[in-house]
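Annex B. Sample input.
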Amino acid sequence: MAISKILFFLLALCIWRGKCDVLYKRVGDEVSMKCGLDSSKQSTLVDWTFEDKFLLGTGKGGTVRKGNSHIVAKASIDGNALKVSKLETRDTGVYSCRQSGKRYTLRVVSVFVHPGPVLVQSSNAELHCDVTQEPNTAVRWQRPNGEEYSEKTQVIHLKSVTLRDAGQWTCEVTEELKPRVTLTVVVDLYTTAVNVSEGDDIKLPCSLPPSVSQRVVGAKWKADHLPTVSFPTLKNTGDKGLHWNSEDLSKVNFTTGKLSTNFDVTLKNVERRDAGVFVCRVEFEGEVSLSVETTLTVIDKPSGGDSISNPQSEITKIIGKILEMAVPSICGPADSPDRALLKLKKLKRCVDDAEASLSSTVSSQDIFPCPPDKLSHSQDTEFAHSIAPENNIESLERKKLNLQIKLLEIQNELYALQLKALKNSQFRKKNRMAICKILLFLLALCIWRGKCDVLYKRVGDEVSMKCGLDSSKQSTLVDWTFEDKLLLGTNKGGTVRKGNSHIVAKASIDGNALKVSKLETRDTGVYSCRQSGKRYTLRVVSVFVHPGPVLVQSSNAELHCDVTQEPNTAVRWQRPNGEEYSEKTQVIHLKSVTLRDAGQWTCKVTEELKPRVTLTVVVDLYTTAVNVSEGDDIKLPCSLPPSVSQRVVGAKWKADHLPTVSFPTLKNTGDKGLHWNSEDLSKVNFTTGKLSTNFDVTLKNVERRDAGVFVCRVEFEGEVSLSVETTLTVIDKPSGGKGSNKRNGKRSGVPDVLFKDVYGVQLWIWIAVGVSCVVLIGLFVVAVLLHKRNKREKQRVRKLRSMRQPLTDKDYCQCNRIVKEVELEEQARPFPVPRQHRNPRTRTAGPNHVN
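Annex B, continued. Sample output.
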């Protein structure tokens, strides 16, 4: 009872003094902890400690004293408050201010998806909301649709994920901390139907979104209608990576180098019997796969070789191809119409040049919409320094223009050849000029009608596109198409018509506006409203880190801000410290990342769209120094943060002072996964099962010569590794022989599990506190029961006292007379006897009575 009272008293004192503050922060956040000194003590020394070891302090003169902790590099003191930025899971622990005695328990929360944020449909996923050093703390999960998830554990297991599971999941740790994690589900590979003329070669497209987190283990092409045609097989090995495994085939060409996400193959010398369906199947870790079908159509070659039999239809095809390339680049982003107007002016100059030109040859410059505008004076000066002075002005201008259109000549080459074929078929310059005029007219109409709106959205966002109908037409039919195929439509009666696109499941019509939620990269394309002719070009932006958001120090990283179907669009990157990155490409390559690169990177696509991606850099493995008594066993700790994205390929323990001691080697194979590869060793014990992030080994029967430094080295994909040192100290056994054998200060007669650390306190202390609480609760229950029993007894006594005693008959004599006599006596009672005739014995004699 006394122990329980003391425990409760100390707890109340702790709360009253404010020393039990627990702070929950997310990885990458900043925390500020106040010392709580009075204003009169602001000028005194301030010392902050971490886990009772000196961290940071200031003197009266403003000098700063630093400890040896890894936190020192990112910690600072503001007044008497301690600030720690870019939090990591290893920053979890107890921070205290020596002067005031104020203590804070910091818990760093890491939220991530294992094996990664972008998974293949039907895969298994683990959503983590890890509260460091509090694995049993309950958290609340919320689905992307707002529903609460049934389980309240820090790790939830999703079996066979679907599009319903995709989106932002929220983990509510406290009312203030509700971190989110995005899960993207990929349901298809990328491909398109292809057409080819008989006798030509054709590429069969099959590619994977680059952000998929799962590891590709194989792939295969198949065509059931061509049983005799052999296709290569995709393999993933440690030395060659992802590559096609086959000799050169007579019918199929393939890339011989290392692959990443593109698994195209080329079919050579196509025949009419080759037409049909080709299936590309890609397999991933976890025994899941994706398949996609592409249809090959074989068409006849045009008669006459290079000549064109139907020039008018060929003009139509060329205009269509030019528009496919020109319209997206001419229209540009919806918020910058000046680019479209500039292109329109250049195209007008193209028409004027075509009318004035009498040349019979056709080059790529004839197809380019127009020469660029005149450059600035500084650019002219730079160009002039690189040109010989004897060149005339006309040749200088021509060279200048050639340099400016050099990047576009490859794309224009196809159209130049087609226009040359038209020229050989007796088409004159006026026909080529007509193409420019048609393009000019269509572009002007496009800009005038506002059909070139380009929308940029991030993966997982929602987009709304208005049809633009007048208010008087609200009751008419509304049909929305995607890539000129019906997507969704409404009738006058309110019935909804649906197409066959994958977008139908997440699209809806509100009034005459089309809304699409949970956007994916494959949703990129042209959406149009048939009634108004309004067209939108949607570009879905995916932002991610390859190979993952949590990387080991010195690894190479790729930060992606992929604008689907616009790989050359320039974006601006901003570092976590606010500095602008020099390159303006969609993919930036970071070599040998450090803590300076860690944090939130911002990709500015437009003024409205600035998605962010977080890069976390791990610099150390987890370990602690250990003490052991001679003759006992001791575990050497070495573990990895569970959120690291890179694949572990091996690990090894080493002790230079013990050259004769053999340690096991960690291997990662497809059948066994991550496991120790060694027979049972005489000196070292290890786990024989499958491992994940814990690489501890146990040293048996420790001797004094075993004391020293042990090194744990873990190797990752990409030829990077992390090493950590743990120091083993061997202490003497206390005297007393068998009765006093100890290990790490623990008696041998007591089970070792009682001395295991649980939340920073040994287990036996928790058990003692628990037993004390149980005894206290038992005594409290007994006291309550006794009190109630006494209360009932008192009420019973009071009740008996308040009740009157009932009068009962007392029979002093019995009468044997019959009932009739009794009745007669009752009817005729005799007169009372006079007093003097009564029995004298019944009377009391007076004082003068004489017998």
